[in-house]
Description:
Elements: E1 4-7, H1 15-26, E2 32-37, H2 42-53, E3 56-63, E4 66-72
Parallel strand pairs: 1-2
Antiparallel strand pairs: 2-4, 3-4
Amino acid sequence: MSDAVVDARGLKCPIPIAKISGVMKKLESGQILEVMANDRAFGRDVQAFCRVSGNQLESLDETDGEFKAVIKKT
Length: 74
């Protein structure tokens, strides 16, 4: 179960990552953020965000052009 959810469907880069960054700042270590997006660049962007921020990308799934990412704050 996630501690927070970001619905970034319909938003284009860089807005989904900006929304993720803002929510992650409010979470405590170990909490989980679930993100839905449908921007084609989202998969690469969220992986890069986690690598740079040090947060853990628990999962990244894509179905019919819609992404779901689960990120754990570290």
